[in-house]
Amino acid sequence: MRYTLILITFLMSFSPFVAAQNEPQNRPALTEAEQQQGLDKLQEPMYKPLLERYILDELKAVRQDQQKLREDVTKQVAHTQLDTADRALTYTTDTINNVFFIITITASILVLVGWNSLRDVKNKVEDIVNTRVSAITKEYEERLKVLEEKLRERSEEILLNQQKISITNEVHSLWMRANLESDVANKIEIFDEILKRKPEDVEAIAYKADALLEINETGEAIELCNQALEIDSDYGYAYWQRACAYALLHKHADAMADIRMALEYSPNLRNELLHESAFASLHDNDSFNSLLNESA
């Protein structure tokens, strides 16, 4: 703000002089009266030496301040650059020292462990990795084999269950046919079909023996009853059918023994003692009558 005021004052002081210089040279000379009248009109002097000196001093001071400011800025920039270069040099030196320190430690460790080169390190690492990978691979192969075995067993079990379900459905259908069949020969054929699908079905064996007794095939009926009891010695109806066969053959002692076994394993057969036609020859037997009395 101070410099602006000085500049304005300087321009105002020199403006009359500049105007006088710009006037044309061929202007006619003034008379003394006109000159005196012009001097009377002047309110300020045209020449102010003190003001000019002040302005010149101020301009000089401004130039000196600018020069000093430039020197200060140059010094500050130089110091900053030197500081940055010093930091970069220090960082580089520290980094190089750390790298050499790490290399020295690594080399010392390699010497202590017994590895003489990076190739030995590489080979050792490869051996360790291969060993570990082989162990993991073997472990997962064993797990995969176990899983495959379980899946195979499960698949076989599912197939077996499906076959059992299919056979069960077929056997159930054959039993329904046997219950509706009145011809003994056809019943025997149906029981044979059941036994083809379930050879160890003791119930089918016993009922086939019953059908054989109806056509007086007592010997074959006894063989079937023996076969059923070999499969299941606790099946009471097989004892019952064999007792019927023995009674028809008049082997009363054997018949009574099988009747007792049948009643032991199947007490509900006690109600059939009087109604079984095959036991007609036992009605005069004391042991048989004792069983009847016990039932009563």
From TrEMBL:
The lineage of its organism: Bacteria, Pseudomonadati, Pseudomonadota, Gammaproteobacteria, Alteromonadales. The keyword Signal applies. The chain crosses the membrane at residues 99-118. The keyword Signal applies. It comes from the Bacteria. It comes from Pseudoalteromonas lipolytica. SUPFAM superfamilies: TPR-like. Residues 1-20 form the signal peptide. PANTHER family: TETRATRICOPEPTIDE REPEAT PROTEIN 6, UDP-N-ACETYLGLUCOSAMINE--PEPTIDE N-ACETYLGLUCOSAMINYLTRANSFERASE SPINDLY-RELATED. Keywords: Coiled coil, Membrane, Repeat, Signal, TPR repeat, Transmembrane, Transmembrane helix. Residues 130-157 form a coiled coil. This is Tetratricopeptide repeat protein.
